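User: Design a sequence. Structure:
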C-alpha cells in the first residue's frame, strides 16, 4: 500500500496534528514502513497458533497494601496557592 500526502494529511487531521516539510516526509516514510511490516506478517502461517493474551505465565507480584501517613493535612495545604480552611481551592471547571 502506498501512503500519499493526502493520507498523511487526513490522518493528521483526525489526530489533530500538523506536519510540515521534512516532518511530513518522515511520517510518510514511517507509515509506509509500518504497512510493509504488516504486509510481511500476513505471509506468516498462523492457522494452528492460539491467540496470545499474556506475554508470560508469570503472575503479578504485588506488595501488601499498608496504610501509612506520609504527609499531614497541614503539610499538604502548606504550599497550596489557594486554600480554604481544610480544602484546596481550585478554579471552577463545571458550568451550571
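Assistant: Done.
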Amino acid at each position: 500500500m502506498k501512503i500519499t500526502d493526502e493520507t498523511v494529511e487526513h490522518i493528521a487531521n483526525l489526530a489533530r496534528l500538523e506536519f510540515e516539510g521534512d516532518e511530513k516526509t518522515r511520517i510518510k516514510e514511517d507509515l509506509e514502513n509500518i504497512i510493509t511490516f504488516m504486509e510481511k506478517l500476513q505471509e506468516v502461517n498462523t492457522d494452528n497458533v492460539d491467540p496470545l493474551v499474556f506475554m508470560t505465565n508469570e503472575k503479578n507480584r504485588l506488595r501488601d497494601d499498608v496504610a501509612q501517613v506520609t504527609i499531614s493535612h497541614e503539610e499538604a495545604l502548606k504550599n497550596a496557592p489557594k486554600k480554604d480552611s481544610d480544602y484546596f481551592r481550585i478554579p471552577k471547571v463545571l458550568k451550571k
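The domain at 5-42 is CATH 1.10.20 (Histone, subunit A). Residues 22-42 form the longest helix (21 residues).
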